[in-house]
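Box 3.1 — From sequence to structure: Solute carrier family 40 member
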Amino acid sequence: MAADVGDEERAHLLAISPSPSPSPRGIITTPYQPFGQDESINQDDNDSSSLHSSEWTVSQSARRLYVSHTLSTWNSRVFEFGSVLYLASIFPGTLMPLAVYSIIRGAAAIALSSWVGHYIDRNDRLKTVRLSIVSQRLVVAMSCGIFLILIKVRTMSREVRIGLLAFSILMACIEKLAAIMNVVSVERDWVIVVARSDTVALRTMNSQMRRIDLVYHQVPALQYPKSIPHTTPLNGGNRQNPLVSIKHGLKKTFNDVRLYFTHPVFFPSFAVALLYCTVLSFGGVMVTYLLSSGYNSSQIAVMRTISVAFEVLATWIGPWLMKKIGPVRAGLWFLSWQLGCLSIGVSIFWRYADNVLLSTLALVGSSMLSRIGLWGVDLSAQVIIQESVPQPDGAERHGSLVRMGSV
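Predicted structure (token representation):
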């Protein structure tokens, strides 16, 4: 009977007829853990007066997950895109403030992503997601206030402007870490649990989550701690020596690096990390370059919309191709497509460098088409990683992958 319920839930999620077989093809080796392990959730399950506990399905769990991810992604993308435009307006004629802003924000992700994963594994999942959401909203609001002051008050001294810029960079670092906490908790943990070890459901949910992420790229133009972290007292209870703390931090960093390079999913993870090591996307550098080339924000918004349309298209092509030839070969095909598109665009850009219109259109057009390949590779690698990383301490492992990928 339990198997029949599971089939009906998967069928409702995937919009297919329930299969009489209780074991679909391609089962993930990760053991299933109940989505609600918090004591309050268990109490709700035992409460006979609950109207929805007996009707809780995979589809209902996924729907709530989609809503949460939609709101978080909306907030993150609007802030990411808006901060670039604000900095370009506040500091015209130079890329230095934007470069420093982006580098420090990325460095925070590199240095603290592993710690974020460790925190997720050691604390209640639901409270962790709530913390990431609330902190993300607060720092975004504070950053917007700083940008407003910098834009409106032009008479302030240079030292004050630099100080406000430094504070906005700090807020951006906190926002980035909160976004990583939300992504690791939801995309790399809860999705696996909600899919209930069904590979087909997992790929479907991955595609839908990525589709939400990509659509809101365009919007701007649970368990108590398993173990309580503690500090081992030295010399009869004295506080830990700072040198010992530094040594411990360096040792943990070394272990994270070793884990990353010796992990079975190192190659797909490293390949995806290399894909993002480029300025050929509608990030801060390209947007600023297009603005300096004479394009206005409306034209850039149209270009970004077309690019996102190709990216969303990849979320349908990706699962279809993975079903046909598997995630590994699909990733190779998408990778070849991306490299081909970018090679053509860069060649035209260098050949006709004196023609600003032709060179920029070639660069933008090739970047748009290449996004199909990039997000196809991303989806393929995500499936491979999710099927290979075990559930215990999974968030910390994913945090290490995010940390090294941010490099």
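Summary of the box: Residues 60-227 form one domain.
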